[in-house]
Structure formats: structure tokens, C-alpha cells
Amino acid sequence: MPEGPSIVILREEVAPFTGRTIRRAEGNAKIDMARLVGQPVVAFRSFGKQTLIELPDVTIRIHLLMFGSYRIDERKEAAPRLSLQFDEGELNFYSCSVRLLEGDLDELYDWRTDVMSDAWDPALARKRLRAMPDTLACDALLDQDVFAGVGNIIKNEVLFRIRTHPLSTIGALPARKLRELVEQARQYSFEFLAWKRAFVLRKHWLAHNKSICPRDHVKFHRAYLGRTNRRSFFCELCQRRYVES
């Protein structure tokens, strides 16, 4: 599943289509394609893992889910979920969720929760975390109402970086550790973005999809943990498990 930094790159790559008018819209998404034809693209925006194509009367929301992809000025053999064709060029989205949103995006979205947004508010993130004391750290980092854009890679890397076990409960984390979790969720997201742009992201993974802990040189544990049941990679020696006493 593409994480927030990858969606920022998508937004940047499609930005040249801003101002262009949609001449044809097709695909197997269950939306009113005719409504899009003739509308100019006002802006491309992103929120967490969502790509937002803002038109004068409606916004196209695209979520790439687990295996979604996109092509610019080219097509795959598979049928697109959504194809937007312009006088010059086209955008094609595959295996994704496509919805039409009504209304002002600034009323629909709280940009303060997007880790990639200039409006990101760490104090709000800490407040929301303190309201969920029984939540596991591995689930909290994937909560899109707190950390919009954080996915499994960022989750594993942040928890390893701050030496915190994924089965720690949020309420048991010391205040310093809670601040670290919030700070690193954003900092690592921007490092992810820089590495992704340079095509070296995987070279910087210390925990995600790794077998050996680079600190203790012992085997990582791998397990599907928490309510989200996503894969976690963690070291039982250097990642402390914080639980209520």
C-alpha cells in the first residue's frame, strides 16, 4: 500500500495537468464519468494516502489501496479503474478506489492530521493518542485519524528507531517516548520521501522486511500484530515493551 510520501510524489508527477480540461473519462469505477467531461483540473492535492483531483464542481478521490498503480501518458494491458484523457496526455489509475466528493475539501479534511502537510499539528496528535491509552503502538501509528499517511513501513521503522516494542500500549509510554513517536512519524515520513525520490528507500530500511537487528545482531521477530493485523518486524532486546503495571 503506497504511504503518504509516495502519494506526495504522485501529486507532484501529475501536477503538469493542472489547468487542463478533461476531454474523456472512462474506466470501470462506479462513478458518473459524464460529470467529469469538460471540467478543468483546478488542483491536485493529497491527504494521507489519498490523491485528490479538484474540479470546479466535484473532487475525484483516489485511494490506491494495497495494489493500486497509475500511469502517466501510457497504459497497462489491464482495464483502468479511471482514465482521464486531455488534449495532451492522459492519466490512468488501476486497482484503486475511486469516489466523487462533494463540497469544500478544507471542510472535509483536517489537514492537521496529515504527516506530510504544512498544517501538521503534533500537539493534536499527542492529544488524540492520550485519548486512546489501551491502543497498541503498532495500531496507533496506522490510525489515519492521528497519522494520515503513515503506513506499515513507516510504522516498523519508527518503532525501531525509538526503541519501542509494537505491543506497547500508548497509555504506558512515558511522555518523552510519546513525543518521540509523534516527532519521528513526521521526520521519518520526510526522510522516506527524500529516499524514495532518490530511488534508495529500501537501502535505508533498518527493520522493515529485515531478518537481523542491526543493533543487537539477533534475529528480528516477525508477526502480524494488533487490531490492524499488519506485519511487524521488531527486536525483543532493544525495543522495550511498555505496558501498564
Automatic annotation (TrEMBL):
Residues 2-101 form the Formamidopyrimidine-DNA glycosylase catalytic domain. The keyword Lyase applies. Coiled coil: none annotated. It comes from the Bacteria. Keywords: DNA damage, DNA repair, DNA-binding, Glycosidase, Hydrolase, Lyase, Multifunctional enzyme. PANTHER family: FORMAMIDOPYRIMIDINE-DNA GLYCOSYLASE. Belongs to the FPG family. This is Formamidopyrimidine-DNA glycosylase catalytic domain-containing protein. It comes from Frateuria flava.
